[in-house]
Amino acid sequence: MSRRNPYSRADHRTLNAKAQGYPARSVFKLQEIDERCHLLKVGQCVVDLGAAPGSWSMYVAKKIGPTGKLLAVDLQAIEQSFPANVTVLQGDALTLDTGLHERWAPYDVVLSDMAPKTTGDKFANAARSHDLFCSALSVAVAFGRPGGHFVGKLFMGPDFQQARKLVADAFEQVKVVKPKGTRDNSVEVFLVGMGRKSPELEPVGD
Ligand SMILES: C[S@@+](CC[C@H](N)C(=O)[O-])C[C@H]1O[C@@H](n2cnc3c(N)ncnc32)[C@H](O)[C@@H]1O
Q1: CB neighbours (10 Å) of residue 178?
Q2: pLDDT tens for each residue of 82-114
Q3: What CATH number did the domain enclosing 45 receive?
Q4: Which of 120, 141, 142, 160 is the most buried (most CB within 10 A)?
Q5: Closest to 54 measured CA to CA, from 86, 93, 92
Q6: From the CB of residue 32, how many other CB atoms can be counted at a distance below 10 Å?
Q7: Based on the structure, what is the number of domains in the chain?
Q8: Which residues line ligand 1 at a C-beta cut-off of 6 Å?
């Protein structure tokens, strides 16, 4: 049985991403989600949480065109250059000033590919991923346009069904997507919320 580290060398998706000018292979995950769910369109206002090194943001910038606007946020600096309608912010998405979101909102699409630094403890990793996921979902719930969409990455763990229900409470339709571009050994999935419900239609207090 091969014990080769899947992260130790560039695979064909990484090489393909670089050849197309993207800094990371993760672009193919968003591309597949978008092709399956039809989320991104010209002129939209989008926030990309956990955006470094910038592949998703590059893809979004192409899809929304010069009439759209994109806010790209990450703890790490993003060196990728973008068109003028993309604003890059280095900071913690969990503690972003709500005033900032108020200035940008309503978002047509809220994206989160945020991932915690992992340790050998898969339950702790899943719990931290769940916290990041819930934080991104709360942005979509508070600042997403009715009818808008949400994509959040989540590590499979004991809280998965609860996360799925939270998305179902706020969106008309939920899809669970494990894109082909996800590495075979990865526990990550994406929950896609399509069609943000009007806030008055959401269940209260359950
Ligand atoms: C898988 S990478 C994102 C890749 C990106 N979608 C792309 O295509 O280039 C996950 C990112 O989440 C970021 N991240 C983790 N926790 C965060 C937080 N609290 N606030 C902002 N970014 C965070 C990490 O710094 C990391 O860059």
Answers
A1: 14
A2: 999 999 999 999 999 999 999 999 999 999 999
A3: 3.40.50.150
A4: 141
A5: 86
A6: 17
A7: 1
A8: 24, 26-27, 50-56, 73-76, 92-94, 113-115, 132
